[in-house]
Fold these 4 entries.
Entry 1:
Amino acid sequence: MWTACLGGLVALSAAAGNLLPNPSFDRTAEPWRAAGGVATYVPGDGRGGAGCLLVARGKEDASAWACEAGGIEAGATYLFSFWAKQMAAGGGGCIVSGPTGMNHDVNVGSEWTRCEFLFPVAPSHKGGLQCRLGTWTKDAAVAFDDAALQPAALFHRKVGGCVLGEGKEISGRTYRFAAPFDSVFGAASRPLADFACGYNSNRWCFDHGSWVRYRHELGGTPFAGGRVTVQIGYHTGGTLLVEARGDGNAWVRAGAIDKLGAGELALPAELFPARAIEVRLARGDSGPGAFQVHAYGLEAALGTDPGAAGRGRTTFLVLEEKSDALDVAVKSLGDLVPGGANEVALQCRAPADVSFALEYGPAGGERRASRDAVRREGGVALPYELAKAGAYELAIVARDAAQRVLYRARTSFS
């Protein structure tokens, strides 16, 4: 079973759909603005015949377009996506993309290629996000089109009484977590609790005042001991301070790392037993230089048998359309496997003339529509069938009597 991450329900952000202004650059680049280097608008050369944004290297290393996105919800997760192509072979460097503080470096070829990644917004965040599309030290020009910033919800695998997200594993009475930095999830993970730190592609970038906090829980099963592993993949100066606490008590120092490489730190015995363990990574000095954390993990002994075993997985649901007239919270996506308990569960109150359906099928293949919606008190159940294992795409759609779309959210899984 794949269950929602927030108290069993996910009501996707009130600001639905694409939060970027003029994302397809139709007839103009505005309100996107040039933000360094050589940035030009090219009419009629986009993927669909409209315009596109072009960046080329000038006298500076960085070239970019930027805009401000509003409607951002603190503590939420978003999907940033765009299409890009390189206008000539070679050129070195890379594409830079995404909101300030959550950059992702990528590279593409000479054909239009879609790029996407998830990123978290800190619970303390206020205001909008400045987003950019550009290049760094790249001699070849790059074109951009059809960018998107969309609310996303994370759904995690449930095994017994334990919720196991991406990077988690239970084996016997041992719990392990490895942050899924090298994946579409990036910084986003179930244990990530809060942060005040920049992130780039697959690593946290620590400067003065930076910190990241993880919280580990396992359905009430107590932790009996643990150790943290950290990989510093870039270091020109500074000290990483590792602290921990159990069940919300005082922070206790576990150790410090001040050089390139991997470090393993045992958590103090006084923290255990504890039903929740928090680990805080922080810049612990005021000297020159900076460092980057390329890996974070926790291995912990469990005080009792958790009654579950296996590897965690996470899938995400992207909100594409939502009418203010309809409130929908997604409770579960079902098992998402052939022969499983495959049923999408929604919590909602909708007029009788609103219809619900699933549109799904193999990735890139023909879609089928399931309109066998079952209305229950306060909700709707939508069953689906998967003939065989493979990569699939699924959309949840609600329409009014005139067949206008009131709600649409999509996911992909395998």
Note: The radius of gyration is 23 Å.
Entry 2:
Amino acid sequence: MQYYILMKTNSPSKKQKVCILSFENINFEYRVRNQVIYLSKYFNVEFLGIGEWEPPKTVSYTKLLRTEKTIFYYILYASLLLAGRICPFFYQYIFNLKSEYAEAKRKINVSGFDIIHANEWDALFVAVRASSGKNIKIIFDSHELSTEQESESLLWKIFVRPFRKWLFRKYMSRADKVITVSKPIAKSFSKDYGLENVEVVYNSKPYQENRFSKTNENRIKVIHHGAAIQNRRLEKIIELSDLLDDRFVISLMVTPQDQKYYKFLEKKCKSKSPNKVMFIDYVDYDQINSVLINYDIGIPAIDAVNRNHQFALGSRVFDYITAGLAIAVPPLNAYKGLVEELNIGVVGGMMTVESLAFVLNNTSAIQFDKYKKNSLKASRQICLEQENRKLFNIYNEIIDSEKKESYAKMSKSNFKKK
């Protein structure tokens, strides 16, 4: 692979100017933070985003103010979604409801960016609209299957899904490159929107040199960590504990993002034997690995309430791989594919806790050790450093194509002069 010096075609002494655009709170967006930090090593990066954050000194951060969602906002939003069902022309006016979209568009119009890295569906719309008539390359980064994000809701399915499908049909092909988080989402984009070469960049974690630890055949330690969110159905992990044999003990390390649901889980957990399942205190992000290395198995997800959950690949599975844990999951498309490809764990035959319990109960400590060793091996192959190289190559490809376009225009101009 040939690497080019990352410079503008018309100004060899100047770095490419990159806009990283996101309308989600940066403090909850690990993927976006990594983009900003990594790409700023090679480009002149400006981040347009939401939330209080201290970026690297080399990065300019334009903090966008999030629109307050009043009753009037929701009435207008619902009216436009309804009108869009009748005539899709009205969908475009939904983007007039949020001031952050207009502010980002104004910033892009005056900043002379070479590349916009648009994170998620709303950033794609703004990027395409703002770059119209300009020589700006667009990378669309889809963190989820956004057209199915809350499709367990009938109202969402009837009104929001058609809007997002319209947006993808109209604007996704305008991106110079589309990347996403899992192979099932990439395949879905290729099938549904006729895209070629959708690339997968995993939400991997930095490589850490962790040692293999042998599984105690009499006490196999299982863990799930993350936020207590109701549609993740974490109570099923507690139910799983009743079905596992006496070798297994489960720890839940969850944050009370939904206080009511967290208390429900806590109460349900206390009704079980502490020898089977327990709550443990959550730790800061940089200490998660030091906790996980004391476990044998990680459960990244236990159920799917919609197609997005089937296709998405959460970052916690990479925490488990980095720590050298075996993985246990029901047959969720993205997780199943990853686990089987890398041979790092077990997959239930059906979407039930009974099915997952069956495969766990019928797996020996020796087999779990094999999976754990494979996880440690995989942690080198798909670590953050490797995925960042993939991201760099994508940018390099974009710049290479821009150089070819400039060369073709120059050659055509010279030919006409002759």
Note: The first helix runs from residue 30 to 39.
Entry 3:
Amino acid sequence: MFKKTLLTAGAIIIIFIAGAFGWYFFSPQTFPLTKLFSSNTTKDTPQGDEKNFFPFGSGEGTNSSQTNGEASASEQTTSQTEEASFGPLQKISDSPISGFGLFEDKKDGLFVLYSERETGHIWKAFLGGGGKERISNTTIPRVYESVFLDEKHILFRYLANDDKTIESFLGTLTFATTTAGEKMGSIDGIFLKKNILAVSKSPVNSSFFFLTKTDSGSDGYISSSDGKKQAKIFSSETDEWLPVWIKESEIILTTKPSSKEAGYVFALNPKTGSFKKLSAGGLGLTASLGGEGKTFISAGGRGPTLALYDEGKNSVIPSPFKTLAEKCAWSRNEKGVYFCATPKDLPKGEYPDSWYQGAIHFSDEIWKINLKTNETNLSFSSEVPMDIENITLSSKDDFTVFRNKNDLLLYKATFTK
């Protein structure tokens, strides 16, 4: 039996507009968290009028050309990448996807599993040049999110026929040999609680955290990958939470971001259930998985502003990049290195609302940043508009797999050395 390793999904890339903040890299600085945050309360509801999360404020959007709606952006990207099967940019999926996972084993090497958005069918693409194949034909229609917990367990999320109820189906992928002698998989599983609001996978194993809506607010649960073991660890009087499981002992909960309201960040210990406030202030505040004790955070407003929060030192390390926290990921191969996807031109809008709602689109580049040396390198750029999300880095940091928000297709981008 081969040892198989799930490569962290959602790992990511950094992009930056060269020169605009060149001075910044030669004078890195940190700010005491006490000057930026109010973290004296453990209550789960925002208190006070706390502002100025980022000492340098939120950026203004620059004048730039914008896409004319999601359909036109999709058509443009699809037509331009018809012949881009190989090289720095490779289109993997032929139809929109709802999620993916990057894996590696001795037999198949690196491969990616992904789920079709329209049918829920599972495909396997071999990243070493071996093509792709459909491995499951179980139809689960209109899946808007699929979370690959491991190679066998996938959480499918979709709206019920009433277009109101959120269904969450925890599927197990099993294989059988057909009459033609071919191996084909099918999905069996269980339904979880209705109206699960958000899900975040553990960074160390196949378990996951989920939030479900209740009459009084929301409850949070830890579940095993097969759903047989579930434990409630959290209750709140509000359901406006976005979870990010950043390390074994900590789940970050941020209030749902809005460009017109200050955001708040809390830490939940999945083992003890303890809950504490980490930060307050910052319009449109969001957080995303980082590394080495640091979490990516960004504030919104008229333009996104990125920073790294170091919980151990109780400080924030500002970043010069105008991008969203979820567009960044920590290196899997080097210490003190991270990647981010940053727009070549920043469209005007109210962040992050305008981006989440699809009112604006980015054309991203990918940059690599070394915190110790302040060295930055452009890792990937393309004439094809790539609005990068759900980025996953390879174990050697030589490429990334991501979904393009413009057309919801899966791509592989090979980095420039």
Note: The chain has a mean pLDDT of 80.
Entry 4:
Amino acid sequence: MSKFQGALDRFGRFFIEPLFPNEVVSREVSAIDSECKKNLQDDNRRLHQVQKELANASQPYSRFSVGKRKTLHDSPTARGLSLRDMVVDFFTDHYSANRMKLAVLGQDPLDTLQRWVEKIFSKVPTRGLSQNWWDMPLYTEDQLLRQTFIKPVLGGPSLELQFMYRDEARFHESHPSWYLTFLLGHKGPGSIFALVRSNGWADDLQAGNYTPCWGSGLSTIDVELTKNGLVHYRDIVGIIFRYIAIVREQPPQKWVVDEMMHICQTAFRFEQKCSPSSTVSFLAGIMQQPYSRTMLLSGPCVIRKFDPDLIRESMSYLRPDNFRLTILSSEYKIDLIAMAHCHPCLEVSNPASAHMSSSRFILAQTVLEKLGTRSDIGHAWMERNLLMIPCTNTCLMPFETPATTNISLKLYKLNMRCL
């Protein structure tokens, strides 16, 4: 037996007859706890966890995605539960051959690799589990139209617009969302970034889409603000919505997609090689998506056709009644005046002085900021150093750019065809 064949056999045994010995489970809890502590001061992870905690509780996206000793060991033990039994139950409930994909990379002939895989992995039990799919919104109607203020550990001021979107895996031939991110994230003349940078409000702007879990998606616009940009964040949001309106007024432009096709094909052709472990990890994940088996490498990277109808549908998600606004800044003064939501990742300061209004909310340090000119702030749900406030029903009004602001937006290269 070759070394690689032996490694495949040992790997396959993890899913055929796992042991889950108590000492290994306990050791893994310690490793997870160390990783959680290491990331407590990471601004990106803190922001992501805050957004998850404030999402639809019915969505798996809202769950704590790491864990620590308190949640994985101390709390279950106090309730008389066995962690090993819980791990075994989770394995039985979620691991099934019909849900799993395998990618193998080796120097042996393909026929030999296939023979090894079939011999070893055909023994993985099939429990007939259905494919996971969560056809429910990431945010409820009450959770949209909110702005969140977060005090970062190290990061500078930034702004993020987050639109509730769809799962686009089935549209992989046209990737319609890329049309929007290509235009919104452009940095040439006539773009959002060109205008806000000329005003001294931003140092960078990025736009993108991702799928938190199967069945749903998010479209985001991130702006790295200057100190002056933080003061004018409402103006920046107004500019973004005006640009979106300009894009939506125009029919989808085929020449834009043609340029994107050329860029994607060039990037794919000259893509830098990854490590073997990264390659098989990427392919196993892609195989879970509805790509043609002959397009697993290029499918996530290349646009193959122009579909104006799907592009128009994707535009319909970038509406002023379908977004959330997040501001990261350490410039705000903090007052102990509002309710904060406590999640397992961030510890609560001053718990002794906290007044419990429900089983999920406590008082903590937060920052209040009114959205627009509306005087009644309404009910606000807080995270530590964080606040969300409902917008008015006519949610374009709070973001309207003052008439004195010089607006010079145009659709990127609408009448040009050269890079």
Note: Confidence is low (pLDDT under 50) at residues 333-419.
